[in-house]
Amino acid sequence: MKKILSILILTSVLALSLSAQTGSEIMQKVIDAQKVNSSAMDIQMTLVDKDGDTSTRRIQTLILNENDLTKTITLFLEPASVRNTRFLTVENSGRADDQWIYLPSLRKVKRIAAGDKDGSFMGSDFSYSDMGSSGSSVDDSVQTILREEKYNGRNCFVVESIPNAGTDNNYGKYVTWVDKTSWLTLKVEFYSKDGRTQIKELNSENIVKENDHWLAKKITMETLASGHKTVLDIKQVKYDIPLNPGYFTTTFLETGRAK
Fold first, then answer.
1. Domains in the chain: how many in total?
2. What is the residue range of 58's domain?
3. Which CA distances in Å does 3 have to 9, 11, 12?
4. Are 63 and 70 in contact (CB under 8 A)?
5. N or C: which end of the chain has fewer CB within 10 A?
6. What's the rounded Cα separation, in Å, for the pair 235 and 79?
7. What pLDDT, on a 0 to 100 scale, did the predictor assign at position 152?
């Protein structure tokens, strides 16, 4: 009887290990699917409060991949109240992203400290942490497949990700719906640091393939407690285009000029 019990326990442990390994492979495909050599996006950001009132911003996001590490700069173009605000994220190997923001009203570059990364990015439902690199290592979390199901008519894996203790993370758990065709994330539930309470939800819509790259042209992030939403509508995107590395520097943040 003890031998049978031991075999059953061992089988269960192996099954869990296999699920975690498969979950890691799925999330690695998600990361790989989002990687590009370079891209430029014209985006409309709409802030929607619980009463349905809206305010709209126009932003441009540039992405450059160098040595398998991603640099991203976001420039606010409209309205006048946020024009010339610039935000830079630089992915690092083996440590957290570096992030800086230039606020025209202060006329200086501010580095985003680790303790500030859970703060709202420009009044949106995205935190500075959410705006970080999409190339994070799957080794930073334990990935487990929960189930397979359809979401918005697309076949998905549902994967739970629990960050490892000691990692730089503002959430205690993620549950992600991964499209089996495009490897895009169609839905993400973000949970509090204790992993018990869902605090935000992201949904991706209008999945298209442009220039051999899958893309969600509409992304909505909602803060559940307040009912506030941020909607990103991608109006135009170009891939694999020449970009001046000088855009991705604190000098450009401050001056608006790339050397």
1. 1
2. 2-255
3. 10, 12, 14
4. yes
5. N
6. 17
7. 95
